[in-house]
Design goal:
This protein is elongated. The protein starts with a helix and ends with a strand. The strands form 2 sheets. It has a 12-stranded antiparallel β-barrel with strand order 1-2-3-5-6-7-8-10-12-15-16-17. It has a 3-stranded antiparallel sheet with strand order 9-13-14, with no helix packed on it. It is mainly beta and 331 residues long. The relative contact order is 0.19. It has a single domain (2-330), classed as Porin (Beta Barrel), CATH 2.40.160.40. A hairpin with a 2-residue loop joins strand 15 (282-295) and strand 16. It has helices at 2-6, 13-28, 37-41, and strands at residues 66-79, 88-105, 109-123, 128-134, 138-154, 159-174, 200-211, 214-224, 232-233, 237-246, 248-249, 255-267, 271-272, 275-276, 282-295, 298-312, 317-330.
């Protein structure tokens, strides 16, 4: 608490209470949002495979280089019939992930590695299905296309006005290291797997803008998915994420960064033997509230995602919420 009080911009009681309240509600609540998210506002691949958590971010809020551990929790509800009152099945996806952003050529080239371990549960009315094991490993490389820093003196405020632009392009591959089990009932959520069983290709574009203490991060990602040994192919996927953040600093370089994001996910239909699988396409729009705190080389972060609007698998699959907690060692 004392270290938080030292951070510039948090000396006033109402600012401190606001930040602590946001972090506490995210960490302690099973679902940290009210039933109607519209009142709150006034890294899902439910159709593909959500196991690597890309929609919850490919790195920390700030563009830092690190090695860390991330825990992901995702809650789903799937219908077993076509009617509104059809029975539902509760699903919980748990993932512990080694993730990283490692420099290869300073300020030019970096690589990212994601190694997930999954424990997923599906609760039927009379039985429970549990799967666990390593998931699909992903490897990406990001190249810096443009980086620019600006600075000037603002006479009106008697302060230095600084700006920062960063543009990166990335490409990578997801390997079929996680087991795909064809005996699992895919008529419910087809993502209830340890892996897709296929080799997929990933492309992304990242743009970061920062002016003084506030910033905006934008990321678009496309997944081109292959077929597995069973000739089952998850649909290609497009994600976007836009994150607004504010940086509070103190004289000892401790940093607190609250954030608010909007993200979207769009899925093409899955196919088996080249034939489209019914009720597997869809789209969803999410908002995410988060915060991360950095002291020296360690960063602790937490994110909570809640759907604003969704139509996944033509309404047969519903995302309830997602949560992520991570700790990174900054390089």
């Amino acid at each position: 608490m004392k270290s938080l009080l030292k951070i510039k911009g948090l000396q006033s009681k109402w600012q401190l209470a606001l930040v602590i309240g946001a972090i506490s509600s995210t960490l302690m609540a099973k679902n940290p949002f009210p039933p109607s998210y519209t009142s709150f506002l006034d890294d899902c691949d439910a159709c593909g495979c959500s196991n690597n958590g890309g929609s919850l971010g490919m790195g920390a809020i700030l563009d830092t280089q690190f090695v860390g551990l991330r825990y992901l929790y995702q809650k789903y509800e799937s219908k077993t019939g076509i009617f509104d009152n059809s029975p539902t099945v509760d699903e919980a996806f748990n993932t512990l992930q080694l993730w990283s952003r490692i420099p290869v050529i300073s300020n030019v080239l970096e690589v990212q590695l994601f190694v997930p371990w999954h424990e997923h549960n599906r609760q039927y009315t009379t039985k429970e299905l549990h799967i666990r094991g390593i998931g699909d490993i992903s490897l990406l490389a990001n190249y810096t296309l443009w980086e620019k820093r600006t600075a000037g003196y603002d006479r009106a405020t008697d302060k230095i006005d600084s700006g920062y632009h960063l543009l990166k392009v990335g490409a990578g591959v997801k390997l079929p290291t996680g087991k795909y089990n064809e005996t699992i009932d895919n008529t419910l959520n087809p993502s209830f797997q340890l892996g897709t069983g296929s080799t997929d290709f990933i492309g992304n574009l990242q743009y970061l803008f920062k002016r003084n203490s506030w910033g905006l991060s934008n990321v678009v990602t496309y997944y081109a998915k292959g077929s597995n040994a069973n000739k089952y192919r998850f649909g290609n996927q497009f994600n976007f994420n836009s994150t607004f953040f504010y940086v509070f600093k103190d004289n000892t370089k401790n940093v607190l960064v609250p954030s608010l994001s909007v993200s979207g996910e769009f899925y093409q239909e899955n196919k088996v033997f080249g034939i489209p699988v019914k009720n597997t396409s869809g789209q969803a729009l999410f908002t995410t509230i988060g915060a991360e705190y950095t002291a020296k080389r360690l960063t602790l972060g937490v994110l909570a995602m809640y759907p604003i609007a969704q139509n996944l698998a033509q309404g047969f699959v519903e995302v309830k919420h997602r949560t992520s907690v991570y700790i990174n060692y900054n390089l």
